[in-house]
Amino acid sequence: MTVGKITEVEFGVELPAFDPDTSMTNVRRFAKAANWMGPRFTDHEAARKEGLPGALVPGIMSQGFLAAMIHRWAPDAQIEVVDTVFRAPVIVDESYHITGVVTDVDEETGKVEIDLTVTNDAGETRVFGTATVRLPR
Amino acid sequence: MPSEQVISKPSRIATRQWGIEPMDADIAAAREKFLNVEFDTKTFDVTAENIVEYARACGEISPRYTDPKHPDFQAPPTFASSFIAGRHLPKDYPRFGGLGMDAGKAIAPQAPVRPGTITGKTHIHDIYTKTGRSGRMVFTVIRMELFDDSGTKVADADTRTVVRERPTP
Amino acid sequence: MILDLHTHSIKSDDGRAKVVNYCQWIRTKNLPIDGFVLTEHRQFDGESDYSTLARQFGITILKGSEVETEYGHVLVFNVTAPLVAEFDFARIDLSLVRVIEACEKHGAVAAPCHPGRKRVGMCAHIENLGVPKGVKIVEIYNGGSRGDEDDQARAMAEREGYLGIGGSDSHIVSHVGRCATRFPAPIGSEAELADALRAGNFEAITYRNQAVGD
Lengths: 137, 169, 214
What we know:
The complex is a heterotrimer of chains A (137), B (169) and C (214). With 137 residues, chain A is α+β, with helices and mostly antiparallel strands. Chain A has a domain at 6-21 and 57-134: Thiol Ester Dehydrase, Chain A. Chain A has 4 helices and 4 strands. Chain A has helices at residues 24-33, 39-42, 44-49, 59-73; strands spanning 78-86, 96-106, 111-120, 125-134. In chain A, a hairpin with a 4-residue loop joins strand 2 (96-106) and strand 3 (111-120). The longest helix of chain A is centred in the middle third of the chain and has 15 residues, at 59-73. Chain A starts with 23 loop residues before the first helix and ends with a strand. Chain B has a 5-stranded antiparallel sheet with strand order 1-3-4-5-2. Chain B has a domain at 25-46 and 95-164: Thiol Ester Dehydrase, Chain A (Roll). Mean pLDDT of chain B is 82; it is low at 1-6 and 8-20. In chain B, strand 3 and strand 4 form a beta hairpin. With 214 residues, chain C is an alpha/beta fold. Helices cover 29% and strands 24% of the residues of chain C. Chain C has 7 helices and 9 strands; from the N terminus they run E-H-E-H-E-E-H-H-E-H-E-H-E-E-H-E. In chain C, strand 1 (2-7), helix 1 and strand 2 (35-41) form a beta-alpha-beta unit. Strand 1 of chain A pairs antiparallel with strand 2 of chain B, so a sheet runs across the interface.
């Protein structure tokens, strides 16, 4: 179910859940397209040699996942800000869940604020952030 | 409810809330020298293929982002974040004796990014510390302002880096 | 009376939640908490007045602080002007023992938070620095805990005879109320909260992994 206008948005509503593709194949595809290549993102072994638990999903890819979730929910939403805090690494080939909930609605300006999180199977928050989006009135 | 728009908030709170601690001299000097001074200009070639691949990898399904023939074809709004790859500071910027870590990123899109050339102009937007006797954490907010071929601003992209200084023996 | 004893608003450098939205969230989601304490990082927010919001939503909103010591982060409840004059809240290298002493002198209560977390929690520092004097209460449920951090916190509390509190450590709106603390009687002010903590009759609760709110 998608929303179009600001008046359709209720405070507290959850955006449809979205499980991002964090497979190595997809991360490599992203890294190439975003010109964000580096062994710590595209090679588990190389990442472990750097002391990391495994190859990292780039923070900017998490941002991209979060934006995609917003677009799936509100295709006409204009994203004005995505602000992310990287709390713990997101590891390639592990499974994650992205959630979004509406935490502020301003019908006059058409602005909506959304809490965003990337959590793992244990329910731990790895990335959190907020987005401000504008919807048609 | 009214909303207060924040992209990388300034340092007002942490260190100066009570006016007890004067700003460290080296931080004051770095702010004086580097804040809001553009130190780098880069150009980026954006192709339709890059945009489609980026969008698909992120899970975008709207043809606006995945179909170059769409009349409003453009990059997803977070695309501009990818221009700020790597540690990106002025050559003579103080190192503060430690490794820089990425503490967060914010992107504020203002106009669509479409295939063509994007110009990124970078400045230091904020420098602040959390202070301790045994060492400091120095935060630097780097802002890249992005413009398209026509000179229209398409986004502000902020990176917050933090350096944890090693205590001096 | 159930209070979330550990929350951050946009007044904290990494906080992204507005206090009004916390209130809306608690009411819209029917969260089982009666209020929350704003424990902004390395400061006491003396300026903000949330009494109108508190009345409007019927929610208790109190203010505390989260300071940083050699043993990691520490929640401080019932911050007063004399306490603020005792040490510099902005520093990241305060002495835990001195913070506790200052709190006792001025009717405040200090409680190390997320003790099981690396670097910013107390458990790891005990190995190097020994058990600090004067700790009576620690946070045993923290909404931001990962892995076995809360287990480590509870184990330490049991070993050392500490009482346990709970707080969500929320930085965004939807994370408020993930953990909280239950008190037997109503609490209407920071001073009453400090009294209730000193009385020792409370219980840490967690709502994580339960279908409450979100």
